[in-house]
Amino acid sequence: MTTTVTTPSAAPGRAGADSVPKRRSAPKKRVSAGRVAAWVAMALIMAFTLLPFYWVLRTALSSNAGIYADPANPLPVDLNFRAFARVFGMQSTEAAIADGGSGAEINFWLYLRNSIIVSTLVTVGQVFFSAMAAYSFSRLRWKGRDAVFAIFLAALMVPSIFTLLPNFVLMKQLRLIDTLLGVALPTMLMTPFAVFFLRQFFMNIPRELEEAALLDGASKTRVFLTLILPMAKAPITTLGILTYITAWNDYFWPLLVSYSGSSRVLTVALAVFKSQAPQTGPDWSGLMAATLVAALPMLLLFMAFARRIVNSIGFTGIK
């Protein structure tokens, strides 16, 4: 008979303690000089970026007399909202002159309506027609397509000021000077950037989807309207926001073709507001208040869609 000799095992508690690895504390991140320098540089950049906006707000909340009395004060001098009252036409002529304004009546709501109409016309027309051109350059096959697209992109290098005189002559011949349509028409059709932006996205749409729709009997027009455009909702929205902001901030062309309040937009109205200066000097608080009111809608619009704009540009591959 053979006997089996067994060796005693280690104590359960000791074995468990030996088998469990000891947790090491996470190493503390050391604050390097490069990281500190990067944060300081970022803080300085943010300060220089936001300082003009703050100074506009500070001037708008100050009185004209306080601005001239203490121009270096970083806080509003004689804090009040009378400048905004002048902008919205809620202040009498005598009170406006007493506050350092010109006392001239400013139809702010008319200029706001004109800016909305012009920006909407430019955005809707430019996005739609640019989408049609981008679809033609990216999905349709026709002779000379790439050469035409290359020439079209070359227009990106032409300064817009070179086209002002030909556009003005064209609007004059069409009798559209001093009209809202004349202000919007030169940029209503398409731009090279808009076509290039949408073409990059259309090229990433699988051709199998379009071919399946064509096999089901859909026409090219129906494919474009019911398939391509809904799939390009994100870049089209981004392009629409960028176009709306650009049209809203446009100044030189509206100044060139608008002669009266019926076609004057907000950016031109601000220049007219500044030119109506009293003998004591420009109404700086009123001008800054009008600037804030005119810029606030676009600032809120961009802040609301900033992430979508960045994601759409990154998706299209634009650098």
Walk me through what this model shows.
With 319 residues, this protein is mainly α. It folds into 2 domains: 86 residues, no CATH class; 157 residues, MetI-like fold. 65% of the residues lie in helices and 0% in strands. The radius of gyration is 31 Å and the shape is globular. The N terminus is likely disordered. InterPro entries: MetI-like, MetI-like_sf. It comes from Actinomyces marmotae.
Keywords:
17 helices, globular, mainly alpha, 0% strand, MetI-like fold
Brief rundown of the structure:
This protein has 319 residues and is mainly α. Helices cover 65% and strands 0% of the residues.
Name the helicity range: 55-70%
DSSP, total strands = 0
- Write out the CATH superfamily name of the largest domain: MetI-like
SSE run: HHHHHHHHHHHHHHHHH
Largest sheet: none
Radius of gyration: 31 Å
User: How many structurally independent domains?
Assistant: 2
Instruction: Please identify the oligomeric state.
Output: single chain
Distance between the termini: 85 Å
Mean pLDDT: 80
Counted by DSSP, the helix tally is 17
Shape: globular
The residue ranges in which pLDDT falls below 50 over 5 or more consecutive positions are: 1-13
Strands, helices and their partners?
Elements: H1 12-19, H2 33-60, H3 64-69, H4 82-87, H5 93-98, H6 108-139, H7 145-154, H8 164-173, H9 180-184, H10 192-202, H11 207-215, H12 220-231, H13 233-249, H14 252-257, H15 266-275, H16 284-304, H17 306-316
Transmembrane segments: 36-57, 116-135, 147-168, 180-202, 223-245, 285-306
GO cellular component, one term: plasma membrane
Region (Disordered): 1-26
